[in-house]
Amino acid sequence: MTFIKANLVNIRQRSIKPAHIYIENGQIVNIKYVETFFNRFALPGFIDAHVHIESSMLIPSEFARLAVVHGTVATVSDPHEIANVCGVNGVKFMIENGKKVPFKFYFGAPSCVPATHFETAGAGISPAEVAQLFESENLKYLAEMMNYPGVLFKDKEVMEKLAIAKKYGKKIDGHAPALRGEQAKQYISEGISTDHECFTREEALEKLQYGMKIIIREGSAAKNFEALIDLLPEHYENMMFCSDDKHPDNLVEGHINELVRRAVARGIDVFKVLQAACLNPVEHYGLEVGQLGIGDPADFILVDNLEEFNVLRTYINGQLVAEKGKSFIKSVPEQAINNFDTSPKNHKDFEVPSSDFRKIRVIEALDGQLVSNELICDAKLGVLNFVNNGTEIVGAMSDTERDILKIAVVNRYQNVPPAVAFIKNFGLQRGAIASSVGHDSHNIIVVGVDDFAMSIAVNLLIEAKGGIAVVDRTKKKNYVLPLPVAGLMTTEDGYKVAKLYADIDKKAKALGSKLKSPFMTLSFMALLVIPDLKLSDKGLFSGKEFKFVDLFVE
């Protein structure tokens, strides 16, 4: 038996009392309250209420190594990224790898694989497979229902999956950006209980009033903390925190602890903040995560104070897993799983011959947001080639002066021509950047100043079977971070990956990008379920109209 001396923070009772906490066989077996206060506080561990582990580029066991340092003891994890590549086998890979370390991963059954039928994914997950996952893996919930039009129009497969979740008594996570009014009510009425996609206070408040729980998201790309945090004092019982997508360099810096610190610094009651960060996910999803009660699993953290929340120690099931910035979780060997079948591309594959029209639709990327805008701009035309009689072949080209660059999505599962369009705000002045992390089907996505650089970047990833790449033709240098696990993750040491990612991120910014996280922003430019204008491997897609649209317009 071991015991810990600390000021025990009881979130349910809203109390702080000095105590001796006795731990045996992974559980808290006794608590003795004493008179003298200590210089440290024991509180339940932090929980990320919605995260795609794959976005860290780390397998779950490595994610855990980095997260525990910040006091995170559990995650509510949606494995739909790897599911889009490898199907049920990918989900099982995540579950089994997560079991190899002392950390509490709670995975859901992906609900939208593929996310839409307007793109090519590597796999699908049927209603029968959702039921199989609930039966064989005891998953906690049906992961985010991104196909909100399918809910509203009662798509057969969507409704089957919702019915299966209800049959097994599982919570259903939502995903309904900008859905308001009667449509939001209808969506929620189908049993969908959460949303992490709210990016305005008004939208979040409306959904809270309709009975939804709102998860405040602050990740590497989407950052909604500032917009939503002022709702917490009144609605703390129905709010949680999440990262959604967290790149490795950001995970090294902090996790849910950062959001707790920022919320308390705004003057929000510490118990309300901790309820959102520690307790609400446990109660909503039914997680087996301790809350510092007798008989609970010994999952808790020690911090130096309740303002900065500097984590001194992290315990999971009574095991010390981190202390003063050092993780005690060991790396575990793992075999890669993947799905990659396309041939190298030629620069001519990225040419855009012009039509009779001279205006084009342009995706406007927004820094720190998953949503994009649709712009109509004049195309920059140039000579692509000459036919035998000397006639010029004219096409649309990247325009660095107006920051309108080519973007392409390359199907990685079939050998077919890429889809090419244009995007604004990436800021590249030379070269190209590419990634096989392209939500949600994870085809290769590339942005570049010229077709040669784009083809080089894509071919680097085809050769590596996935990863992220930077091509600087001016300096004649190429950089690649291989991601051999589904083209999304690596089995390498998490701290090493964080450094490698930070380095390649700097290389991308050296090409001229002013985006805070160019690779993260790039990865969402193929996410069709987020409006307004996105690009799939099949063409330009309007998230507002939910249909394909032409590149050239009158």
Automatic annotation (TrEMBL):
It catalyses: adenine + H2O + H(+) = hypoxanthine + NH4(+). It is an enzyme of class 3 (hydrolase). Residues 42-321 form the Amidohydrolase-related domain. GO terms for molecular function: adenine deaminase activity. Gene3D superfamilies: Metal-dependent hydrolases. The keyword DNA-binding does not apply. SUPFAM superfamilies: Composite domain of metallo-dependent hydrolases, Metallo-dependent hydrolases. Pfam families: Adenine_deam_C (PF13382), Amidohydro_1 (PF01979). Coiled coil: none annotated. Its cofactor is Mn(2+). One of its GO terms (biological process) is adenine catabolic process. PANTHER family: ADENINE DEAMINASE (PTHR11113:SF2), N-ACETYLGLUCOSAMINE-6-PHOSPHATE DEACETYLASE (PTHR11113). Belongs to the metallo-dependent hydrolases superfamily. Adenine deaminase family. This is Adenine deaminase. It comes from Thermoflexibacter ruber. The gene is ade.
